[in-house]
Specification:
single chain, 156 residues, mainly beta, seven-stranded antiparallel β-sheet, globular
Length: 156
């Protein structure tokens, strides 16, 4: 689900404050912030599993690595991505780049130009937490670094 799809769904909600039911025990909510970066949240059993911003998706397991959580994530994250489990560990697979990341290392999936053709190869944008041992070498010189507002030197 992207920002536009979430916006369309929310318009059909009876009461925006109570969210829009989108699945069994799953609701879509809208959060208006004071700093202007509003977002939608998908909650499963009131645990946040996806935050949808205009330019990115923040996946989470909500503290529960269950079959249902994984199913909801796979239903609502952008096409070309999937969550899977191997040896009891969760991973996020980027099928365009044919790469998998430990789920806990994924910070966000960009929804701006998710797929691009760079140097003869398909590439998508996944932002990993900076503590990831392979960061930023995972994507080499591709432009997947920090968030625009987290440029070096701005936190002084």
């Amino acid at each position: 689900m992207n920002w536009n799809e979430a916006e369309e769904l929310m318009m059909t909600a009876r009461d925006r404050n109570k969210g829009k039911p989108i699945g069994n025990n799953t609701r879509l909510y809208f959060t208006e912030t004071t700093f202007g970066e509003d977002y939608y949240t998908i909650r499963l059993h009131d645990n946040r599993i996806i935050d949808i911003y205009e330019d990115r998706i923040l996946p989470s397991n909500g503290g529960w690595q269950t079959v249902t959580t994984k199913a909801r994530l796979n239903e609502y994250i952008p096409k070309g991505f999937r969550v899977f489990q191997k040896n009891w560990e969760w991973y996020l697979e980027d099928t365009y780049a044919n790469t998998s990341f430990p789920f806990g290392n994924v910070y966000y999936i960009s929804t701006k130009d998710i797929v691009s053709f760079v140097n003869g190869e398909w590439s998508s944008k996944v932002m990993l937490y900076s503590t990831h041992p392979k960061y930023p070498e995972v994507y080499g010189n591709a432009p997947f670094g920090m968030l625009d507002d987290e440029e070096e030197g701005e936190d002084e």
